[in-house]
Write a structure and sequence with these properties.
It is a single chain. A hairpin with a 2-residue loop joins strand 16 and strand 17. The chain has two domains: 413 residues, Alkaline Phosphatase, subunit A, CATH 3.40.720; 66 residues, Arylsulfatase, C-terminal domain, CATH 3.30.1120.10. With 516 residues, the protein is an alpha/beta fold. 27% of the residues lie in helices and 17% in strands. It contains 15 helices and 18 strands.
Length: 516
């Protein structure tokens, strides 16, 4: 009897050391889907107060899960924001801190009558630093990514085939993603026997111009094609084999273009007095006749994709063991004719994409996992994209945190960097156990294109532009209108100390540091 009591006590102690989610449910790795859309502002969804655009499926996801009100992207633009998600490092540490392009150095090759770039893509992720798909793959997950990569150019050291992705379909290059009816997309599929990332020519598109008159005759719409491939991959997943999916949809980023279907026609009737926009050929943004209708329909189209994903999980009996996260890579854009003022897209926040004000970095963030994440809950937990990697690691029961770096040819300094993470797992918050949640002392951003930096600590926000610091109290000034720097020099000094400590110089992405 004493032996039984001892074993029971020992078992209870062992159970208490497991991750929270494992204590509550069976000891199986959950499936994880991260749906990352492009340039959706904090106020673009019905569940965040959007009055004009219909998003019933995402709103239902929020009602059945947890809606975060103080979640942040890693950067105010695409590539560096995605880099923080992939690496678990903020932009003062991670290598990719901006949209550094490589297609500008490339020759052009013909696609029908159109000339396109022979090599496309952005600055590669640091090959010595394990990224999220590699971590999940090492922990036994099937991995798929569908949408935008933006983590390395074609043929570089960092493409999906080299970074732990079993199946990829979409855009390697975010500049290519400016066209919704492109000349080609990229693919990597072990299942199909691919040895590296390849191009898939869209044969129905290339007989017609890629800009201007005739573009409307193109029929192969990239967002639909990407979603179809994502759904086919999801349909192949089975109980018992955990899967990790990054669905990095390009909607609702410019250009403003989509099929002329009932969805778009409905919004044309709603926005009868609509705006037109003349286009920008260098940016690959085609002219738009109905800017408001196009933008609204793109978000509702994305919402329909989310509804199909949720229905597929239900059909396959996978939803109770699948965590689904929906979020955006940065704040709202005004490119391609978009009109964020009309839609109130910033959610009453100051600033847009490319700004380290709240409007450029605070984003919608929703998590749903039936039976695990409490339904209909709003959370004010402070999180950033670099928290996603440690969160996924905890859910995967990661036992290999140093395994990938040991496989790479890296020096001591690189190995130390590979161990570093700026994020905290927020599994405890997801499961409604906030008492056990580790919390950030601060969040950090920097962005070289606009020469801006920011630090948030509690309700205080330090915003730096061109080396000049400004201080805001977000609890009373969410729009960041009143600069309190002169009234609180000690608080400015405290946040500047964090900024100086966290920033590591990167000559590819220089910013102006405040004076010491």
């Amino acid at each position: 009897m004493n032996a039984l009591k001892y074993l029971s006590s020992w078992g209870s102690l062992l159970l208490s050391t497991l991750p929270v989610w494992a204590q509550q449910k069976a000891h199986t790795q959950p499936n994880i889907l991260i749906i990352l859309c492009d340039d959706m502002g904090y106020g673009d969804l019905g569940c965040y107060g959007q009055p004009y655009i219909q998003t019933p499926h995402i709103d239902r996801m929020a009602a059945e899960g947890m809606r975060f009100t103080q979640a942040y992207a890693g950067s105010p633009v695409s590539a560096p924001s995605r880099a923080t998600l992939m690496t678990g490092q903020h932009t003062g540490h991670t290598h990719v801190r901006g949209n550094r392009e490589y297609w500008t150095q490339s020759e052009r090759i013909p696609y029908g009558e159109n000339m396109d770039y022979a090599v496309v893509g952005q600055e590669p992720y640091d090959p010595n630093l394990p990224i999220l798909p590699e971590v999940m793959k090492l922990n036994g997950y099937t991995t798929g990514m569908f949408g935008k990569w933006a983590g390395g150019y074609e043929g570089s050291c960092s493409t999906p085939d080299k970074r732990g992705v079993d199946e990829f379909y979409g855009y390697i290059c975010q500049f290519q993603a400016h066209l919704y009816y492109p000349n080609f997309l990229n693919r990597y599929s072990k299942r199909a026997g691919d040895k590296e990332v390849v191009r898939v020519t869209l044969e129905e598109n290339i007989p017609y111009p890629m800009y201007g008159k005739g573009y409307e005759r193109r029929t192969q719409y990239s967002a639909d094609l990407i979603h179809q491939e994502a759904m086919a991959w999801l349909d192949r997943q089975q109980q018992g084999q955990p899967f990790f999916g990054l669905l990095t949809y390009t909607l609702p980023h410019a250009e403003l273009a989509q099929p002329e279907d009932s969805l778009l026609e409905g919004y044309k009737k709603k926005f009868f007095h609509d705006k037109t926009w003349g286009g920008s050929k260098p940016s690959r943004y085609n002219p738009v006749v109905h800017t408001h209708a196009q933008f609204a329909a793109m978000i509702t189209r994305l919402d329909a994709y989310v509804g199909e994903i949720m229905e597929k999980l239900r059909q396959k009996g996978l939803e109770e063991n699948t965590l689904v996260i929906f979020t955006s890579d940065n704040g709202p854009h005004e490119e391609g004719g978009a009109d964020p003022t009309f839609f109130g897209r910033d959610g009453k926040l100051r600033g847009l994409k490319r700004s380290c004000y709240e409007g450029g970095i605070r984003i919608p963030f929703i998590a749903r996992w039936p039976g695990h994440v409490p339904a209909g809950v709003d959370s004010d937990h402070l999180l950033a994209f670099y928290d996603l990697l440690p969160t996924c690691r905890e859910l995967a029961g990661d036992k290999h945190q140093n395994g990938l770096k040991d496989k790479r040819r890296a020096g001591v300094a690189e190995k130390r960097r590979a161990e570093a993470s700026d994020g905290f797992s927020f599994v405890a918050t997801l499961l409604g156990d906030s008492a056990r949640q580790a919390r950030h002392d601060f969040l950090y951003w920097e962005f070289h294109e606009t020469d801006q930096m920011a630090v948030r600590s509690g309700d205080w926000k330090l915003y730096v532009e061109g080396g000049v610091p400004h201080l805001f109290n977000l609890s009373t000034d969410i729009h960041e209108d009143t600069d309190l720097a002169s009234q609180h020099p000690d608080k400015v000094k405290q946040l500047l100390d964090i900024l100086w400590r966290e920033h590591q110089d990167n000559p590819l992405f220089p910013v102006t540091l405040p004076a010491r």
